[in-house]
Amino acid sequence: MPGFAETMHRTFFRTLSLLSPAGQALLLSRYFDWVHRAPDPWKLATDGYEQHKYRSTLRQLPARPYRRIIEVGCSEGVFTRALAGAYPEAEIVGVDVSERALARARVRVPEDGRVRFIRADILTHRPERRFDLVFCSETLYYLGRHERLRRASAQLSELLGPDGVLVAVHPWPEATRLHHYLDAHTSLSRLSEEVHASSPRPFAITVYGTRSGD
């Protein structure tokens, strides 16, 4: 059962989702700039749990070439750097609402024509192109209520090109609720799910593909 602090945390973000998508995006941007007032607020670069989650996520990917990759909610670029190492030929885009986080991401993974970072949010971003591989990790629960989760699922599906792969990683069992909106989207088909229930902080890695003919 979630503790009091976590319950209040979730309630705060559900309240933000009563705003317009643009208003919600603005406040989320300001909130995450505040969170990133100190480097690596979630210890993504040093926490053993986070490193285990990254390795597990990469192992779960279908074995195929990925030419264009986007990471939604890239924060300071820790996983972006892992992606750049795992797929050295791929074009990689990291997206986050916090410009402060992105400034550190650009130091961690210098933009070089192959890797770039943009400030945008999942609810209003309009992609210039489609991607072979889309990551969305520890992000959906910030969006609040049902309508916003449905909108986010539609936005994520819009990022995928033909035969694209979407990977969603969120806490377990909350992932059941969050990933339900992806399951319900007509253009997505669930390929696999791996639940790490014995982890100190359980999580699920769910992999989707574009439906045949979409």
TrEMBL record:
A Pfam family this chain is assigned to: NodS
Residues annotated as signal peptide: none
Descriptive protein name: Class I SAM-dependent methyltransferase
GO molecular-function terms, A-Z: methyltransferase activity
Record keywords, A-Z: Methyltransferase, S-adenosyl-L-methionine, Transferase
Domain of life: Bacteria
GO process annotations (BP): methylation
Listed Gene3D superfamilies: Vaccinia Virus protein VP39 (3.40.50.150)
S-adenosyl-L-methionine is among the record's keywords: yes
Record-linked InterPro entries: SAM-dependent_MTases_sf, SAM-MeTfrase_NodS-like
Matching SUPFAM superfamilies: S-adenosyl-L-methionine-dependent methyltransferases
